[in-house]
Amino acid sequence: MISRTRPSGRRLRTLSASGTAAIVAVLVVSLLPSLAQAAEATLGAAATQSGRYFGAAVAANKLGDGAYTTILNREFNSVTPENEMKIDATEPQQNNFTFGNADRIVNHALSRGWKVRGHTLAWHSQQPGWMQNMSGTALRNAMLNHVTRVATYYRGKIDSWDVVNEAFADGNSGARRDSNLQRTGNDWIEAAFRAARSADPGAKLCYNDYNTDNWTWAKTQAVYNMVRDFKQRGVPIDCVGFQSHFNANSPYNSNYRTTLSSFAALGVDVQITELDIEGSGTTQANTYRSVVNDCLAVPRCNGITVWGIRDSDSWRSGGTPLLFDNSGNKKQAYTATLDALNSAGPGPTPTPTTPGPTPTATPTGSPGSASEIVGAQSGRCIDVPNASRSNGTRVQLYDCNKQSNQSWTYTTNRQLRVYGDMCLDAAGSGNGAAVQIYSCHNQTNQQWNVNSNGTITGVQSGRCLDVWSTSNGAQVQLYDCNGQANQQFRLAPLA
Ligand code: XIL
After folding, report:
1. DSSP secondary-structure letter at 405?
2. Alpha carbons 194 and 433: distance in angstroms, whole number
3. pLDDT of 203-233, one tens digit each?
4. Do the Cβ atoms of 252 and 291 come closer than 8 Å?
5. CB 135 within 8 A of CB 177
6. Range 440-451 average pLDDT
């Protein structure tokens, strides 16, 4: 057993190079908290410094365009399918679900360790013909069935779902938007959120809208009142998405920061979900800078998504509202955005600023030997349900049985491998992110520190493996480390 208090030469030798680097990094951060962070060269890496993601809306039919994919893969670490998860795309005929194009985007993202924003489960627009023609109880049930089926299909893969999109009216009324869904009863929104929570308990559930950026607008206040009411009554809502399509009719206003912080104060995350800013040159760049700085000023503003990559990819291409020009060159707006992200201090989920628990490189047994991972509170083992080998299968607790689906090998590069070639994988980095199996790659969402204090922490997220019950079938997720027994695990050698 390695001493925790007195590092010996042997202990240093047993640490991997990256483990040593991680400790040095933690010490440097903790000893020199006032040092500016090194500038990162891409949007995703720059946002990650403060624990945020930077995403783009992606179209499946552009994934074959090399210029497009080069920028996507270099700059972003989150995606939102631009149209592929909408109701008309996923349920073109009632009860006939098609996920091919959405899956292309989801797989592209998850295989790279990125987040996916799901968009959107319930909306008045882009409904298939069969739904447009429905009303009353039949429509309500069809909508709930849609929410359940789609959220279940993607269970464990989605960081945040736009459960309901654009349910409020523009203008000064503060009323709900009239729609076939609204006409099924005012409680349709909370019914959709409850169905989504049951189907995918690990995803953050968001309400998403536009023209809700200006704090003084009636629509903003109306959505705020709904979210406050939901929180008070225990309707499951975790986040609010601000589309933030800025143009002359819906201009950026400096009270945007007040909007973000006011919603966050209700106890929800806030996300900028469809950002685009019409214009060009310095004016456009300055507005992008302001938007990013407003998000960075609000700890619960945990991610920004732009609605497309190049201006030519935009749904409003005539307004040249994005960060890259038609040829894929970085615009002034790009530089302003990157610089603002790089200026952020540590945010909501940064690298720990105090030394955390000590990672132990080979916790028990010899490197490469298989262990079961036993929960201290439950006595149960981390298990792949039904011995599945499918990417995205979420792991659970189950009675220990020494079978291959409970047999994990901790590698020198800190993967936890099962069946030889599949890895324990975090489907996101936020609280509640699903922990699943996925084909091994070398991203940090598949790297784990097995710590001397009994926790197992994700290298990407810094969060702890966590279970919310001790029962057979209890799902494993990421959560802020809290020192509780449901976050304590032991690697017990099987040989
Ligand atoms: C837009 C897409 O970008 C277009 O390709 C499509 O034709 C229409 O929808 N608010 C939303 C997004 O929530 O889904 C919309 O996306 C833009 C406005």
Report:
1. G
2. 18
3. 999 999 999 999 999 999 999 999 999 999 9
4. yes
5. no
6. 88
pLDDT score of 69 more than 50: yes
| Total-model pTM | 0.68
Contact 89, 98 (CB under 8 A): yes
Atom number in ligand 1 closest to CA 59 = 5
Cα distances from 190 to residues 140, 141, 164, 226, in angstroms, run 12, 14, 9, 10
Report yes or no: 190 and 164 within 8 Å, Cβ to Cβ: no
Q: Is 244 in the pocket of ligand 1 (CB under 6 A)?
A: no
Stretch among 94-98, 149-153, 374-378 having the lowest mean pLDDT: 374-378
Contact 196, 150 (CB under 8 A): no
Between 218-233 and 256-264, two packed helices, what is the crossing angle to 10 degrees? 10
Q: Which amino acid is at 127?
A: Q
Q: What pLDDT digit, counting tens, does each position of 320-350 carry? A: 999 999 999 999 999 999 999 999 866 443 3
- 394 pairs with which residues across the strands? 436
Which residues lie across from 176 on neighbouring strands?
168
Helix (H) or strand (E) holding 27: helix 17-31
Catalytic residues: 166, 274
Inter-axis angle of helices 188-199 and 218-233, nearest 10: 50
Cα–Cα dist 407/398, whole Å: 12
Nearest CA to ligand 1 atom 7: 315
Mean residue pLDDT of the chain comes to 89
Task: Identify residue 36 by its one-letter amino acid code.
Answer: A
